[in-house]
Amino acid sequence: MLDGQSWSRIRAVVDLVVLYMAASAAVFASSTVGTLPGSHWFAAIFPLVMLVIMRARRSPDDRLSGSMLETVAHVIGGVSLGAMLMLAAESIVGESGVGLAVRLWVFSVLYLGIARVTLLSIRRQAVSTEALATPTLIVGAGVVGEHLVKRLASDPGYGLRPVGFVDSDPPPRNGPRSAASVPVLGGLEDLDNAIDQTGARHVILAFSSGSDQALVHKVRRCQERGIEVSLVPRLYESINERATLDHVGGLPILALRPTDPDGWQFVLKHTMDRTVALVALIALAPVMIVIAGAIKLTSPGPVLFRQRRVGRDGRAFDLLKFRSMREDTTGSQFVPTEGCAPGGIEGTDRRTRVGRFLRDSSLDEVPQLINVLRGEMSLVGPRPERPEFVERFSLEVARYEDRHRVKSGITGWAQVNGLRGQTSIADRVEWDNHYIQNWSLGFDLHIIALTITEVLRFRG
């Protein structure tokens, strides 16, 4: 089992070793260019200072969903602070080691960045195995608890392995809830026994029927036993990354900061969208001419495929793609499987030879840059849907229409998480609404980076 404490100790040891390697490389490079040897003792204590800085700041890889990009940014910020502290110390004692400080910064960012990303990758692979994942109990066997188990079971990369529910008054387990793969091990009073029985090292509170006073007592008991405790907060649908914790006396107050699609940040986003789209269209013009010629020469029909879609505020527009299929002469209407979104190969496979390549490489989506330039779409956002399906999903799926608060995107958070084609519409809504709630320019860049990675691997 690789819990948070074990991971933290391993990371600290690796950080220290890597930082001394970086300091040694910086000293060696400085010696070759004649840097004063008197400043080298600063390099000797730099790794220790950096270790304190990195331990004092919570790392993104401590989070269940921390990304590699966030980890690299965290390293750059920490090393920059350490380098500035070293320069300040040198100025106080009268040393002049700007060159050494720059080299320490460069080597530390490079070495520590690579080490942290490698460690994060290794950890994700390790905790994905049942043997190293942290056994986790869920307090509350209701809808939220069931959903939590589903998410943890579908993505082992979180490193939490559900082993059971604890609930004094669990709801009847019939219908869609019968799919739960973990048992109810008793009521809240049985939590200690359930921990002993399962070897759980993590407990998540997810809306149980127990009183708050009883839950607080159990949280303290878990903390005394060294068990990590997390909770799903009330009104979780309204909480995002911008929420801030404050206090009124001893009472914690969580201030909610909702996303404002009409705010200046989105004006900046849309300006950047159009600028990038224009530059990309100019750069890709030769490629688009070649693709258009290949489509025209290999199959009859128009070069561009136009389809009515619904975007921001429910406004319809014509989404553009390079045509990848032969025209449908049957006039048949595609009906997606219950609970699934449309997309991908609908009905008979009518893809042309050129179309197969365009779809596998995602080059069929390039004309949507024109939609972005027109202001109908964004580079990143929820994928737009056809009007007839919007009408259907608005009735069937909770919070489906929330996606229309922002512009639709060429790529989105749901797509980079594997929800492309005929996949769960409820899951798409969950991921898309998470993106809207937690939107930032950094989040957009993260999604674009993941999209480019998938495209370069020729997703199918």
Give a quick account of the main beta sheet: strands, pairing sense, barrel closure: 4 strands, parallel
Tell me the strand percentage band. 5-15%
Question: In terms of structural class, how would the helical and strand content be classed?
Answer: alpha/beta
Q: Please, how many helices?
A: 14
Mean pLDDT: 86
Number of domains: 3
Topology (elements, then pairings):
Blueprint: H1 4-32, H2 40-56, H3 68-93, H4 98-127, E1 134-139, H5 143-154, E2 160-166, H6 191-198, E3 202-205, H7 212-224, E4 228-231, E5 244-248, E6 251-255, H8 264-298, E7 304-310, E8 316-322, H9 353-360, H10 368-374, E9 377-380, H11 387-396, E10 408-411, H12 413-416, H13 425-437, H14 441-456
Parallel strand pairs: 1-2, 1-3, 3-4, 9-10
Antiparallel strand pairs: 5-6, 7-8
Helix pairs in contact: 1-2, 1-4, 2-3, 3-4, 8-10
Question: Can you walk me through this structure?
Answer:
50% of the residues lie in helices and 12% in strands. By secondary structure, the protein is α/β, with parallel strands linked by helices. It folds into three domains: 4-127, no CATH class; 134-232, Rossmann fold (3-Layer(aba) Sandwich); 264-327 and 339-456, no CATH class. A four-stranded parallel sheet has the order 2-1-3-4, sandwiched between helices. Strand 5 and strand 6 (251-255) form a beta hairpin. Helix 1 packs antiparallel against helix 4.
